[in-house]
């Protein structure tokens, strides 16, 4: 070895030492590094993918829930619309009825409890009295309670009421077709159907006799007598 040769060989050795990536172990390290990077990228990619999928499923679930809720709201909305329409119809019907009542019940009519009453100024036979009530959209009064009986008695007039036995003698029927049960307010010894006296004739219609006491004031009398009358319209 000459000195020059030794220096050359040092230079070569040094140059091999600096270029480490050209050695097989260096290449393997680079490959390993790249593999790590690829794996990391794969893991990140998969995480993002499944994250998005999971989020998508959640969105789908809440979309379905919202759709259901929307359908329920639509159903209750249409139910409420129907109810509103029904209520509007009822309101219109009641307001029409109120207007009608105000018109018909304003003059000559008075209210007591749940009915309107019309006391006539003139006198007629029972049938004509009833006709007048029917024309007024009412009928001869039907007495349902002590209070009603006392109210009518206190009008202080002999009046026709809507009770008759003209179909079958002794079977008393109200003008609405119901038979007389209770309450009943006959005067003592009434009904007597004229007591067999020809001057009274057959007595098939009923008056409230004003000279009696409130709870014992009904009398049967000839339907051809002329009396005031009372019409009743139930509210
Ligand atoms: Ca009544
Ligand atoms: Ca009779
Ligand atoms: Ca009588």
UniProtKB/TrEMBL annotation:
| One Gene Ontology molecular-function label | carbohydrate binding
Q: Which Gene3D superfamilies match?
A: 1.20.5.400, Mannose-Binding Protein A, subunit A
* Keyword Transmembrane helix among UniProt keywords: yes
Q: Which InterPro entries match?
A: C-type_lectin-like, C-type_lectin-like/link_sf, C-type_lectin/snaclec_domain, C-type_lectin_CS, CD209-like_CTLD, CTDL_fold
Which species is listed as the source? Hucho hucho (huchen)
Against PANTHER family, the record matches this protein to: MANNOSE, PHOSPHOLIPASE, LECTIN RECEPTOR RELATED
Enumerate the spans annotated as C-type lectin domain: 112-232
According to the record, the segments passing through the membrane are 27-52
Protein name, UniProt field: C-type lectin domain-containing protein
Coiled coil, from the record = 56-97
The alphabetical list of record keywords is: Coiled coil, Disulfide bond, Lectin, Membrane, Transmembrane, Transmembrane helix
Query: Domain of life, per the record?
Result: Eukaryota
Q: Do the record's keywords include Membrane?
A: yes
